[in-house]
Amino acid sequence: MLNQVSIAAAGFSIIALILLIMQKRTESKITKNLAKTLLCILIGIQLLHGLNIAGYLLLKDEAVFVYLLLLGLVGPVFYLYSQHIIESGKKWSMYESIHFLPAAIVALFGSLFPEYFNISYAFMFLLGGVYMSRLGWSLFQLRARRSLFKMEFIFTAIFLSWAMAVVFVGFFTAQAMDLLMPIQTIMLSMAVAAAIHIQLNYPHLLSSLEEIANRQYQASTLLNVDCEMLQKKLDELMVNKNVYQDSELSLTTLAEMLSIKSHQLSELMNTQLGISFSSYLRGQRVKAAEDLLLKEPNVSILAIGLSVGFSSQSAFYTAFKEVNSVAPGQYRQQNLLR
Asked: Which CATH class name applies to 219-336?
């Protein structure tokens, strides 16, 4: 029964991960590439899980190396992705490639000495636990909005608990490995489902994380900047050029339009406008949607939401209710009757 559930979970997560790869992303080029790499790694892991549990593939020889390598890369790739989100504008350094070396070494060891597969398997979880701990500390240091990352802290705690259990079992008994793999497959599919839930219900989480990290100023970055002129240029971009309609618009891309750095734009909005970038952008889109809902009563709500820059209906509804306390349909109905 457990194997059947795990095979179904593997199939679900593979399809979901492929859809996530195809999704439009607003991060920088480096973070986009790291995100897609991570998703491809997870697809590979779940594919090997499903084939192994179903009996179509035995984890030996080259398959062991590939499986262990993919398993070991999850922690460092996820950590590097998160770090590039936190430190927006950071360029890729060859030094960062060293993070992949331990996984490659242990994977090679596991393939050359299959009798120690369970130890290699456990070590990969230990490696992932180390990276999750480092990530948890990075999030903890963003004290200004620590509550925003409650879900990340919970996820980190769950992962670390699971990693400790796998490490304990892996080092002390090989008999339980057949049980660990189906459970791991199911847990990974649940993590993918949680990621989709967060993407649908908290679409601005990543931009908020980037912005909060940029807000950790030691000194003002606007000392030699004409803030009044920048505000006029910002208004022009929003009012005359409607740049908010671009669903991929991010703090970085908007800053480039204004010929300033992303941390300067973040500080400008927080100190001069008293609002965060993500809130400002949602406000611009909701304001435009309010006008269209009344001017175009025959146009569907979904079409209006997408036309003003929201990437999905759920993101539009969530943002609209935050501003107006009612859904777009109710807003249209109430105001058209007046």
From this structure: mainly alpha
